[in-house]
Design a protein that fits this description.
It is built from eleven helices and 13 strands. With about 300 residues, it is an alpha/beta fold. The protein has two domains: about 250 residues, Alpha-Beta Complex (Spore Coat Polysaccharide Biosynthesis Protein SpsA, Chain A), CATH 3.90.550; about 35 residues. Bound molecules: 1-O-phosphono-alpha-D-glucopyranose.
């Protein structure tokens, strides 16, 4: 059984400065919820119960977010607005949280390694909170099903343009079982396009055997002077463990960048009946305005929702 999730949330969020100088990137909003709440919701929908969050300086608001707030609840109840905290309160009642501080900023592998005394001898689910995946079936549930069925490690992957592989861990394929399922031959962190074994890039969801901690123990600093999780998974592979890769069914957004967060917000807004109509109307207006600016159309007037502002 897989019950525990690790969320490494100690990163400095430098790609989103200055917003992330005092606000953790995991707390940036996607519609009305902070990004990390989507991660925990994906975990709960995948039947995970315990979330081990690796934090660092300036990250204590993450703990506050998943904590009861009696004064606010009382205030909202007195105004019959209890539903405003409903989502996060459901999480507080159904999930266990463990917070650990990463002692040194030595990279993703080091962050995972630092929880080794907290998780037992079971497989673990790892969520990188920069990666928000919008999908019909929760992405982690897709991975866990394969891990249980094949008794193996599983990494999520997606195809990316070959010129961008240097931003990712990349897998080489030993065998393809179906359009979306591969047995992994090798894993390389941030290869140059000429050295990349494929254009299948690792996305931030993993199911890993507990031997990953032993493997991380043996790791030296990898690319970027950091302990790389990808290298430790490669080490597992060399020790004889099976690693599968699953091409995710859904859209992945890197919300660690302004453009990624913006696109994720638009996607989620268009899927949400509370926002979709107004959002679509506004996007249509902007699209038309762009044509007007380029002299290719005449103005149509503002959408109703804007006139009311
Ligand atoms: C990390 C992993 C990399 C993976 C990526 C996905 O890199 O090391 O293998 O492809 O996340 O988001 P980072 O983005 O932290 O540099």
């Amino acid at each position: 059984m897989i019950t525990k999730a690790i969320i490494p949330a100690g990163g400095l969020g430098t790609r989103f400065l200055p917003a992330t100088k005092t606000t953790p990137k995991e707390m940036l909003p996607l519609l009305e919820k902070p990004a990390i709440q989507y991660i925990v919701e994906e975990g709960l929908k995948s039947n995970l119960k315990t979330f081990v969050v690796v934090t660092g300086k300036n990250k204590s608001v993450i703990e506050d977010h998943f904590d009861p707030y009696p004064e606010l609840e009382h205030y909202l109840a007195s105004r019959k607005k209890n539903d405003l905290l409903d989502g996060v309160n459901k999480i507080i009642n159904s999930a266990n949280f463990i917070y650990l501080r990463q002692k040194e900023p030595l990279g993703l592998g080091h962050a995972i390694w630092s929880v080794k005394h907290v998780v037992g001898k079971e497989h673990i689910a790892v969520f990188l909170p920069d990666d928000i995946i919008v999908s019909a079936t929760p992405c982690m549930a897709q991975l866990m099903q394969i891990a249980i069925q094949e008794k193996c490690n599983v990494v999520a992957v997606q195809e990316v343009p070959i010129e961008t592989v240097q931003s990712y861990g990349v897998i080489g394929v030993r065998k393809q079982f179906s359009p979306n399922l591969f047995q992994v031959k090798e894993l390389v962190e941030k290869p140059r396009p000429v050295d990349a074994p494929s254009n299948l890039a690792i996305v931030g969801r993993y199911v890993l055997s507990p031997n990953i901690f032993q493997s991380l123990d043996e790791m030296k600093l990898g690319i970027g002077g950091e302990i790389q999780l990808t290298d430790a998974i490669q080490n597992l592979l060399l020790s004889g463990e099976k690693v599968f890769a699953y091409k995710i069914q859904g859209t992945r957004y890197d919300i660690g960048t302004p453009m990624g967060l913006l696109k994720a917000n638009l996607d989620l807004a268009l899927r949400n009946s509370k926002y979709s109509e107004e959002m679509l109307e506004y996007l249509t207006y902007l699209d038309r305005e762009m044509l007007v600016m380029q002299g290719k159309a005449t103005t149509m007037g503002k959408p109703r929702s804007m006139i009311q502002l």
